[in-house]
What we know:
The protein has two domains: 3-183 and 362-382, Glycogen Phosphorylase B (Rossmann fold, 3-Layer(aba) Sandwich); 186-358, Rossmann fold, CATH 3.40.50.2000. The protein has 16 helices and 14 strands.
Amino acid sequence: MLKAISMCTNNKPQRLLCIVSNMDTGGAETFLMKMYRQLDRTRYQMDFVVSGDKRGYYEDEIERLGGRVFRITRKTKDFSAYRRELTLAVRDDGCPNVLRIGSDALSAIDLWVAKKAGASRLFMRSSNASDGKGVIGQFIQKAIRRPLTSIADVKIAPSELAAEYAFGPKAIRRGEVRYLHNALDLNQYQFSLEMRRSIRNELGLNDNSLVVGHVGRFTAQKNHEFLLKVFAELLKQRSDARLVLVGMGELEHNIREKAKVLGVLSNIIFTGLRSDIPALLSAFDVFVLPSLYEGMPNVVIEAQAAGLHCVVSDTVTREVNVTGDVAFLPFTDTDLWVNSVLCAGEAARVDKRNQMADAGYDINEEVKRFVTLVYGTDDNARELQ
């Protein structure tokens, strides 16, 4: 059954209906919330379609901001119910603008249903550069690329790598893709010695400990097992090192067990979900992301805004290296990772917020582009190429 939460605002702002799996703290969801918070909500509003019964992390905030959440049946559970409920959500929202987060075949189905329900401007945003399914997954993605590019009126990506994976090189060459950065409120990320001391005190970390930070869901994509191997070797050189893992996920228990086997569990802090990422970044000495694949990892942008040096896998797009402080490494050499983490952790911390702003990562500027793109006209959107 379709369930809508919260009431419409009375001043009838223009609305955007966003279709997502859930509104937890993933990178795509966080991107939407960053844009939503900055909107003039007397003129522009955002509503969300989610699947499943679990209430998402951001849903309370969405309601406070005046948005609505439509909870529908998963298409894989009951397709007829899903189609009926999504149709009702699109019609109830009364808005021609529908944005789908994701770029797989199921995403294309969502936009197709929305179009049949009366939506006239369809947007698709992709942020990944793989689906983690190897050759078969890549073949399927190429096979569905044509229906994806044909049904979405506007294709959005945070990087060229993500755009090429989702929409194909031809779409890029034809100028069909619009790029929106994972922008930030840069002032929130200014390094704070006070926050550093407060977080370290909370987590039981010494002032002089080498703190290696990671933010990400406990999924296969984030490659925590490799991170544990690197950290185990790092401890042989820096016995005072500590690893802080921020996030939750289905593999957390497995990672705890792996850490126990490696004998490093007592040197690791699992924080769970946190809303104070800027403060945590102030407490870190280096940021590490050994992901198997990424499109444009928002958290590496955040880490650079906080002045951190980053060590990431060479599967990550080079476009993420905004400040020049990101090292890209292969999985074949653990010692190289250890040495790079040590060097990055001892590097001087420099305020890079102006550099980030000049590169287009100031939320105040990027939200203007977002408004022009999703609430404006096609002619206005062309200037965002």
